[in-house]
Amino acid sequence: MNLKKFIFTVILLVTFSILLSSCKIIDLTKENVILKSELTNKENNLIKGTGSDKYFVFELNLEEGEYQWIELWVDLYEYGEYKGTHNNLGTLIDNDKDKHIMFSIQEFNDTERWVVSYFDNNTVSSRTSITNKKYSSSTWSDTNKVEIIEGEEHPLAVI
Question: Structural domain tally of the chain?
């Protein structure tokens, strides 16, 4: 397949819906960010062992109790044209400090399995979809750090 003919872009967007406790004082010096996870060789091998060919893992550094809900999804673009949203996932966020987001792709002949996940020490929430493989090669990139701004979408990765 010709790369010029098939341009496949996936943008992982994250939007946070805020459910703040009443009378909560927010520490404005605390930085709420999404960071690229620095995975160990063991962690990378565990993910690869699940059959994931491409994956992105991010840490959520949030002030405890400030956010209670997360929404994740993938926007699909072909030839620069928006084609739809896939893998919509909304889930409660635990007050646990160890929170992560993961997007992975498993390739099978002419199809791909896309998985979007949120996990912490107590919870794993995932959404999976199967899509037709539309390219023979790809380039992919992610961000190192995104500051969370209430009500805004936060692109994390592009394939």
Answer: 1
